[in-house]
């Protein structure tokens, strides 16, 4: 087994899918210090002194790492790949049996480039994260709730600003809501335009 370590904070904390898709070996769980979890349509993290993000720590083969790079869109620019020191909180029994006794590892972390605005996850993705937090790793679900609240707050702010802009063209509030939803549907189908408002 290669000693390539990967720290997952998003959907890839799901143990069943990681083992199925990447034949990954869970060595334990820990924390990435100095970062906070956020949602930009997908889970991501941002530098935030004093905060920390819970992670599942995986060991991968070189072949699996290449597949993971592809799955995380590293090669088309959505994510950047960094290496960080991860504090190990708990090792799995199998890790101990393999003599992987450590309190810190250097692991790859995929971070979304910040060209996407804060936006809530799909319900299915949020449920996967919530179940993995609660049942697989016993992480603090308040971290997920806080990220969801912030994403929703930014979404409502953008919606208000855009509907206000639409109303300048003579639409009333109800008509503006219809136009806004039609634009959102069009953007989802065709892809977000380059000038889609960001969280700046």
Give structural attributes.
6 helices, five-stranded antiparallel β-sheet, disordered C terminus, 200 residues, 30% strand, 5 strands
Helices, strands, pairings?
Layout: E1 4-8, H1 15-22, E2 25-39, E3 43-60, H2 62-71, E4 79-91, H3 93-97, E5 104-112, H4 123-137, H5 142-167, H6 173-190
Antiparallel strand pairs: 1-3, 2-3, 2-4, 4-5
Helix pairs in contact: 5-6
Kindly describe this structure.
The structure is a single chain. This protein has a domain at 4-140: Gamma-glutamyl cyclotransferase-like (Hypothetical upf0131 protein ytfp). The chain is 41% helix and 30% strand. The protein contains six helices and five strands. A five-stranded antiparallel beta sheet has the order 1-3-2-4-5. The N and C termini lie far apart (43 Å). Mean pLDDT is 82; it is low at 188-200.
Q: Remind me, CATH topology of the domain at 4-140?
A: Hypothetical upf0131 protein ytfp
| Helix residue percentage | 40-55%
Order of helices and strands: EHEEHEHEHHH
What is the number of beta strands? 5
Q: Count of helical segments?
A: 6
CATH architecture of the domain at 4-140: Roll
Q: Kindly report the spatial arrangement of strands forming the biggest sheet.
A: 1-3-2-4-5
CATH homolog superfamily of the domain at 4-140 = Gamma-glutamyl cyclotransferase-like
Radius of gyration: 19 Å
Note the beta-strand portion.
25-35%
The secondary-structure class comes to: alpha+beta
How far is the first residue's CA from the last residue's CA? 43 Å
Q: According to CATH, what is the class of the domain at 4-140?
A: Alpha Beta
| Shape, principal axes of CA atoms | elongated
Give start-end ranges of low-pLDDT stretches. Answer: 188-200
Q: Assembly state here?
A: single chain
Largest beta-sheet details: 5 strands, antiparallel
What is the residue-mean pLDDT, rounded to a whole number?
A: 82
Organism: Paenibacillus antibioticophila
Protein name: Gamma-glutamylcyclotransferase
């Amino acid at each position: 087994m290669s000693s390539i370590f990967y720290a997952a904070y998003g959907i890839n904390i799901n143990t069943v899918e990681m083992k199925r898709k990447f034949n990954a070996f869970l060595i334990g769980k820990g924390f990435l210090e100095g970062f906070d979890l956020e949602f930009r349509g997908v889970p991501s993290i941002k530098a935030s002194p004093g905060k920390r993000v819970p992670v599942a720590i995986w060991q991968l083969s070189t072949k699996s790492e290449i597949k993971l790079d592809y799955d995380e869109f590293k090669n088309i620019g959505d994510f950047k790949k960094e290496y960080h020191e991860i504090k190990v909180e708990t090792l799995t029994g199998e890790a101990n049996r393999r003599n992987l006794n450590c309190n810190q590892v250097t692991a790859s972390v995929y971070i979304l480039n910040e060209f996407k605005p804060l936006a809530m996850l799909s319900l299915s993705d949020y449920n996967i994260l919530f179940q993995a937090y609660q049942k697989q790793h016993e992480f603090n679900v308040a971290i997920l709730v806080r990220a969801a609240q912030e994403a929703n707050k930014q979404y409502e702010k953008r919606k208000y600003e855009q509907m206000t802009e639409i109303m300048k063209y003579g639409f009333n509030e109800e008509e503006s809501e219809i136009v806004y939803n039609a634009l959102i549907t069009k953007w989802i189908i065709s892809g977000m335009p380059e000038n889609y408002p960001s969280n700046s």
